[in-house]
Structure formats: structure tokens, C-alpha cells
């Protein structure tokens, strides 16, 4: 079953001390978890990261101390991790996956590292290994050739990661970039939430820490260490008894050294036995204290996620408002663009009409000037013609012709000259003057 696309994502990060767990978490979540750069552990207890959002989903990391912790014993670390994981499981929350970080810069995967990973596998169980991503980091500290050789050995050797990979675990590189980390997280975001073996053992099967697969493995390892320490102590005692039997000064210094060694072995044996007893005993005071710490962590994790969810909701509303404003702005811009286009079209149309009008006015003016020129020429022609006619048919010639015609008429035999002839004589006289 695929994970819900809006459900919160919870990822545990595990690995040896100094593997870069806190650095990885701080990189992606902007948390301020303690980061160590030496052999001493900086994370001696379970911590939770600030929740962050990736691809619309809230992601929270659980940072765990390594089993090779320099502050707490392996039994204490196992109990811390187990108590927190069982509490999250009881609250109805399952892990989406687990990231196991391993330094590719390590020269070899020694006994401590192998034991660390063996406990990790017992803690997860075979079924949950499908939700595990084994990520090698610190690639900048090795050459590509050396890194590739170590990577191949880790994935193909039965003593290392091969058995887990055969059970479905993923094997990837992390180059310490945000992009690389996001790729790993997105891989896990696709996993359905699942319970780890130790969660089901403690909650569903009501086992004690010592009865779980991880507890049994750790207890067996402690029994081996106790047996070795006892054997070493017995050997030292035998040597001491032999030296005492000789009672010579020569061996006194050896005796002193052996007593010191015996004291150290006894101290280490006591530590191993105490750790073994912690797995056997269910200290009520310790359980209450650890339960209180675990509940505070769970409450803090829920509170942070609720705060982030509220911020996301507020941000979503703001985004909706911004989106609406952007859509309105786009609509206004479209309207303005449409109006500008219409205005441009109208301007172009007016310009076209103006051009046509200017052309028409120019044509009319040209026609008018042509007609005016034609009229002027016609007037000049008519004036010239009139002048010619005036010269040809002016009043003097006409009067002279008329007077001549009148005077050629014979006068009556008697009596006075007719008036017309008298006028003709006067005209003729006038024309001569």
C-alpha cells in the first residue's frame, strides 16, 4: 500500500558514531543538532529534528546515537532507541523508513562496525529492511577508484551489507549535497509506513528489551566478552599464583604488572556484567525517567509538526490570496492589453482614414488646380478672342461703315436733308477728327 500523499513522514537515521547522522539531518531540516568531528559521540540520546516540508509533505527525522557511543553503553543506547520507537508505535505512528549512514572513508569495516550493523538489522527485522536505505557518505575523503572498490566490497560481502540488500534494502551514495539528501528522502517518502521488529516485539508481543532479537544479540555478545574476560582473568591469576609460589624478588615487578592487569580485567568484567544485567532487569525508576523523556520528545515532535502544519495552512491561504491577486492582475493586464490592442487598431484605422483623407484632399486639390488652370487659360483665350473681335468689330469701323452707307443714299430733290444723313455727316466728321 502506497503512502498517503499528505501524511507526515517520519524517518530514523542510524549509523556509527561520527558517521554524519546529525550533519545529514541539519543539512535538510535546518536544525541545530550537535555535530561532532572527533571520536567522541556528540549525540548520546535520541533527538528529533525540526520538521520541514518537502514536496508538500511534513518530514521529521529521528536522530539516534550509535551503538559504539563513547558516553553510554550499548545496552543503554539500545534501551533509549527501543523506548522511543515503541512509544511512537504505541501512539499510532510508524516509520516511513530508516537511513543507515556509513563512511566510505573508513579503511575497513571492522568488528565494531559489523556489530553495530548487526544490531541495526536485528532492531529492524527482515521485513522492515525493504524500508531501509544504506547511504555511503564522505566521498570527498577518498579517490573515486578507492571509493568504488570499497563500495563493491560492502555490497557483495556477506559480512557487510549484502544480506540486507538481498532482503530489499537500498544502497546509494550521498555526496553531502542538499540535492543528494532530497533524493534519498524522496525514495523513503514512497515507502508505506511500517513497524520495525523491535517495535512489534516490545508493544505487540510485550517482550522486555533483553527478550527482543536485538537484546538477545547484544546479550550474546556480552556473554562472549564476559567469558573472554574471565578466561583472561583466570590466566592472570594463574600467573600470579606461579610467581607467588616462586617467592623471588626477580618476579616482583611482573607480579605488580599482573595485579594491575587483573584489576583492569576485573573492572572491565564488572562493566560487561553490569551491562548484561541492565538487559535482564526492568528498573522501574529508569523506565519512568526514560518514559518521561520519550513522551516529552513525542509531544515536542507533535507540537512542532502541528505548528508547521498551521504555518503551511496559513501559507496556503496566503498563496491562495496571492494566486487570486495574480489572476486578477493577469485579468487586468489582459484587459489593458486588449484595450491597448483595440486602441492600436483604432489608431491604425484612424491613421488609415487620415491617409485616405489626405490622399482625397490632395486629389481634389490637384483636380481643382487643374480646373482652375484650365479656367484661367480659357479666360485668357476668351479675352484674347474678344480683343481680336474688338479690334475687328470696334465702334469706329461700324460707325464709319454706317455713315458711309447713309451718305450714299441720294438726297430728295427738294426740301431738307433727312435726319439720318445729317447724323451720318456728323459721325463722319467726328471720325475724321
Automatic annotation (TrEMBL):
Basic and acidic residues: which segments have biased composition?
A: 375-387
The domain of life is Eukaryota
InterPro entries membership: GIMA/IAN/Toc (IPR045058), GTP-bd (IPR006073), P-loop_NTPase (IPR027417)
Q: Which Gene3D superfamilies match?
A: P-loop containing nucleotide triphosphate hydrolases (3.40.50.300)
Q: Which CDD domains match?
A: Ras_like_GTPase
Which residues belong to any copy of the G domain? 10-77
One Pfam family of this chain? MMR_HSR1
Gene Ontology MF terms in the entry: GTP binding
User: Which residue ranges does the record annotate as region Disordered?
Assistant: 336-358, 375-398
Under PANTHER family, the record lists: GTP-BINDING PROTEIN A (PTHR10903:SF184), GTPASE, IMAP FAMILY MEMBER-RELATED (PTHR10903)
Quote the protein name from its UniProt record: G domain-containing protein
**Lineage, opening ranks:** Eukaryota, Fungi, Dikarya, Basidiomycota, Agaricomycotina
